[in-house]
Amino acid sequence: MKLWILLLTASLVSAEPVSDPAKWSPEARKKTLEVFAREVYGVNPSDEVSRVWKLDRESSIMEGKVVRREYLLTLGGSLTARALVFLPAGKKAVPAFLGLNFRGNHTLEEDEWITKSNEEARGKAKGRWPVKMITDAGFALVTVHCDDFDPDEDDGFKNGVHGLFPPKRDEQSWGTITGWAWGLSQVREQLEKVAEIDASKVVVIGHSRLGKTALWAGARDEKFAMVISNNSGCGGAALSQRKKGETVARINQVFPHWFAKNFRKYGDKEESLPVDQHQLIACIAPRPVYVASASKDRWADPEGEFLATKMAAPAWGETLSKMPGAGESAGDGKVRYHLRDGKHNITEWDWERYLEAAKEHL
Ligand code: GTR
Known about the structure:
This protein is α/β, with parallel strands linked by helices. The chain has a single domain (about 30-45, about 95-360), classed as 3-Layer(aba) Sandwich (Rossmann fold). Helices cover about 30% and strands about 20% of the residues. A ten-stranded mixed β-sheet has the order 1-2-3-5-4-6-7-8-10-9, with helices on both faces. Helix 3 links the parallel strand 4 (about 95-100) and strand 5. It is globular. Beta-D-galactopyranuronic acid binds near residues 208 and 246.
């Protein structure tokens, strides 16, 4: 057996506070999340900020089949995030996908109606957000530019959601990923005020760094009904102890603001990590989870993403057998995985499968 398998097995057997996915319990989940917060992503302060949710504008698109809205969420009286919402027209209480976007809401569509938040080209990311496919399937889509909650820069945690709280920080303080995950929960909560959406059926989804965020948001916040991680890699679905592709040392060096300072201790010392990413996936149980990789995305370690999902599956009482080939899937229950043929991205091929799973589960 390879060394890393031995190490992981040993860490599972020695339980406290690390939980063996097969012995999943609400208590084990709580303890595991505490360790992830302290040692990996960072702990956020208590939620004592004001929240104001306001409809800003509305329009009808796709020959009246879809209603598009922009809502403003103001936190702590000073930070405003703009949520772009697509709703299948004439329906009440539909399930929804909620995910952050990388470069601005206006990158989803060329239409000048969408508020432009920066100089990125309109419609640049439209291939990643198949609005018609999603709304035709009976789902709403809600997205916010991640920078609205925290600019993706190592800029001292003075702005974004961090700036809403006292500036004192230590080794376990929240990084940008926890800031984004916290922001996602704030939006999920506000969706309770949107009659067209059933807020008990919100799927949190994300690609790459925002896939790491979706996993962390979904693991922490039990009110998310389902979690989808697309090509999330290191600090997402990939096992850190494999040290394949992007490593803990490298990610903290290039993106020092993403995680808690504590996570840096494990660079080149992955074997001393008190938790690994399969346990984060297990924290999502009993809610459905879907992890996906792309065959040419070696940086995100597709095998590591599959193995973490497979190792987490006992938390649902499920098993995944062998790693699927490119273009294939594994699992037909609450734990699913697929390997898309191609590069690091999120495509219609991925969305087709997510929609199919979400329809079954919700
Ligand atoms: C890469 C980073 C990955 C992944 C990716 C992305 O540069 O190394 O962890 O998050 O960015 O978010 O596109």
